[in-house]
Description:
The protein is mainly β. Helix content is 0%, strand content 54%.
Amino acid sequence: MSVLFIGCMSSSHHFRKGELLKSGESEINWGYSYTKVPFCRGATSKKDGFTQCEGDAYYRAIPNVSRSFRLGVRDEWWVFEGVEIGYQFESSQVLQFDMRLGLPKSWLGAGLEHAVGLGWGIGQLPDNTYFMDYALSRRWNKFVLYTSLRESLLTTQIVDLGFADITETNSDLYIHARRWLTQMSFGAEFDLGDIYIIPDQINVEILLSTPEVPFVGNATHKDATKIVPQLNMGMGWHY
Length: 239
């Protein structure tokens, strides 16, 4: 199964709030979006180990479906106000695991909650993806507004994959060309209550990512630094 989710794309569904699940509580969430990915029309070249497009780039909208599982494991731990663990896979070939720690509410104003997360994703043959994020949210009864910021050191993309020369001082078969990715989300969650069959909550989220990340087998723009927006829809069940 892990071969099917080898982390060649970045995670793009971040339904993460500042509040964490209580110990013993769990959630299953499903997400859906169209992910716009750049394809290269024309020649490509290598620069500092990264593939770039010398011709024109065009886009295709690729549907992306995600499933995540969250579990609250501690209400209080050391200086943290909660501990939550979970995993998420996406049809764009992403499988990631993370742990989230609730930060003290005393650092913020009334009603605000925040948390920091650390995680890793199954990567390509040379390396894996590692990320850190921060989430902030405010709840009003059954309505939550949240925002999060994630910084990811991505696995070497297939488009950048290369083989190194094996020498006495270098036994690594692969060339490592790792891209940094910055993502910020702005979302709202609506609590529908515990009703049989239908979701307990729904999410609407806007995700901003920079720079562009190439799709499998294709190169990104030369010097691509633009911000790429994406609309995500989600639904979840709380247990």
